Amino acid sequence: MRQFERMGAALAQLLAALLGKGPQATIERRSVEDEVGRLLTVGPEELPRLAPEALIDRIQQSQDWNEQSLDQLADALVALAEAYSADSRERADAYRRQALALLDLLNRTSTSFSMERNAKASKLQGCIS
Q1: Which residues span the domain enclosing 47?
Q2: Which of 45, 73, 75, 104 gives the lowest tally of CB atoms within 10 Å of its CB?
């Protein structure tokens, strides 16, 4: 659980840096990629190349994930997509596809309906080129 707290802190720093759009945003997005990569046991350069299906397989093989942590992971991937949207459309779309796959998994496995999750998924679908 401590890993998820670190990811949340890194995500908060990234979002704050993105508001300023300065060089700090580049540093923070790398920090988030490192943390997400650690959680998924992939290197930060491998992370955007990880197919959504492979991401889901990794998550389903692990017992460490719950609904809340998967929501946080999806938020981190959405934030990374936003962070890369200006300078790497391909990388941004890769993160959007991964987030969309996570949201789909959550919708299929959750016992409760989430309007917020569906809104995120719709927005992501509209952004993928």
Answers
A1: 2-127
A2: 45
pLDDT tens profile 1-36: 566 566 666 666 656 655 455 555 666 778 788 888
Cβ atoms of residues 86 and 22 within 8 Å = no
pLDDT digits (tens, 9 = 90+) for 22-76: 555 666 778 788 888 888 889 888 999 999 999 999 998 887 788 888 888 898 8
- Provide CB contacts within 8 A for 36, sequence distance 6+: 7, 47, 73, 76, 77, 80
User: Cβ–Cβ contacts within 10 Å for residue 79, how many?
Assistant: 22
Per DSSP, the residues of 41-71 read: T--TTTGGGS-HHHHHHHHHH-SS--HHHHH
**The whole model's pTM is what?**
0.81
For residue 71, how many C-alpha atoms fall within 13 Å in the half-sphere facing its CB?
A: 11
